[in-house]
Amino acid sequence: MTTPSRRPSRRDVLIAAATTGAAVAGLLALPGPALAAPYDAAAWRGYARRFLLPEGRVVDTGNKGVSHSEGQGYGMLLAEAADDREAFDRMWGWTQRNLMVRGDGLAAWRWQPDGGVTDRNNASDGDILIAWALLRGAERWKAEAYRTAAAAIVKALAAAVVVEQAGMTLLLPGRDGFRKGDTLVLNPSYWVFPALRAFAALPGAEIWRKVADSGLVLLSKARFGSFQLPADWVALDSGGTPTVAEGFRKQYGYDAVRVPLYLAWDGYRDPYYFRPFAMLAAKYGGTAVPATVSLPGGTTTQVAASVGMLAVYRLASRIAGTGNEVTVPAFGPDEDYYSTTLAHMAALAAQSLGFEP
Amino acid sequence: MTRLAVPLLGVLLSTVSLAPVAFAQSGPGGRALAPGVKVEVAPAPGSGTAPQPGKVDETALRYYARIGDVERLEAEIARLRALDPTWEPPKDLFAPQPTTAGVDESPFWALVSAGKIAEARAAVAEQRRQTPSWQPSANLLKELDLAEAAGRLRGASDTKRWQDVIDAAAAQPEAVACNRLDNAWRLAEAYAELKQTDRAFDTYKTIVSQCPSAKERRDTIFKASRHLSQAQIRELTALGATANPAAGEDYAAVRAAEAEIETGRLLERAGTARPGSLSASDLAQLERTIREKQDSGGALALGWYFQRQKKYAEAQGWFAEANGWSPSDQAAEGLILAYAGLGRKAEARAAAEPWRGKSSRVDQALKSVDPPRGGGGRPAGPQGPSELDQALARRDFAGCLTAIQRAISRSGPTVALVQQRGWCLLELKRPSEAEAAFVEAQALAAREPVRGQGAARNSVRGAAEAEGGMTRAQENAYGQAIARLSTGDTVGLTQDLARLNLTPAQKAEVRASLLSTEAGRALEDKRYHDVLRLLDARKELVPEPRNLGIMRGWALYNLQRVEEAYKLFKSIDDRLSTRESREAVETSWKTIYHDW
Question: In whole angstroms, what is the distance from residue B443 CA to residue B439 CA?
Answer without folding.
Answer: 6
